[in-house]
Task: inverse folding
C-alpha cells in the first residue's frame, strides 16, 4: 500500500465553488480505479467555522493498494488535466503501517490529517506498533470511518489520516481538517 496526497493552495479570494463543481464532475471517474483503495476529494476553506483553514485548499488523499495504480493515475489523463489547470504539485507519499476502513466509510464528511516529525531517537518499531494500535482504536472505538497511519523515511515524518462523519471536537494544533466532497472506492 501507498498513501499519497498533493495540495493546491488557492488564492484567498478564489471561488471554491469551482473546485466543488470539479469534484462533482470528475469525482466519480475514479470510482473503481484499478489499484485504488480509496480517494477522498478534500477541500478546506479560509474562515469556514469549525473547519476553518488558514488557506483555501484542494488536497485529495489517496490510498493505493498497488504502486502500478498510483503510476497509472499520475501518468494518466486525469492528473495531466489537473496539471494543465493548476501546475504540477508536489506529491507526498507515505508507507502505511496500518489502514483501517469501516463499513460506513461512504458517510465520511470530514477528514483530518496530521504530519509530525519522527525524532532521530525514536524507536521505530514501538512507534509503528503504537500508531497502528491508534489507527485501529480510532475506527473501533472513536468513530473514525477510515484511519491511516504511516511514515515516510526521506524526511522522517509520520502520518495520521482519519475520515469522520462529523468534525471531532477540539482539534489539536497542527491538525488540518478538510471537508470531503466525494469518496471514490475500489470494488475490491
Result:
Amino acid at each position: 500500500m501507498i498513501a499519497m496526497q498533493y495540495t493546491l493552495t488557492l488564492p484567498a479570494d478564489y471561488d471554491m465553488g469551482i473546485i466543488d463543481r470539479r469534484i462533482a464532475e470528475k469525482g466519480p471517474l475514479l470510482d473503481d480505479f484499478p489499484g485504488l483503495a480509496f480517494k477522498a476529494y478534500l477541500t478546506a476553506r479560509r474562515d469556514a467555522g469549525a473547519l476553518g483553514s488558514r488557506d483555501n485548499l484542494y488536497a485529495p488523499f489517496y490510498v493505493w493498494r498497488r504502486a502500478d495504480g498510483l503510476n497509472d493515475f499520475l501518468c494518466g489523463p486525469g492528473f495531466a488535466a489537473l496539471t494543465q489547470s493548476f501546475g504540477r504539485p508536489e506529491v507526498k507519499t507515505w508507507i502505511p503501517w496500518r489502514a483501517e476502513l469501516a463499513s460506513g466509510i461512504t458517510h465520511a464528511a470530514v477528514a483530518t490529517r496530521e504530519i509530525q516529525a519522527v525524532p532521530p531517537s525514536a524507536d521505530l518499531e514501538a512507534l509503528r506498533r503504537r500508531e497502528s494500535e491508534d489507527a485501529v482504536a480510532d475506527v473501533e472505538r472513536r468513530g473514525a470511518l477510515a484511519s491511516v497511519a504511516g511514515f515516510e523515511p526521506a524526511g522522517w515524518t509520520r502520518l495520521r489520516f482519519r475520515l469522520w462523519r462529523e468534525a471531532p471536537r477540539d482539534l489539536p494544533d497542527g491538525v488540518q481538517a478538510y471537508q470531503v466532497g466525494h469518496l471514490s472506492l475500489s470494488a475490491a
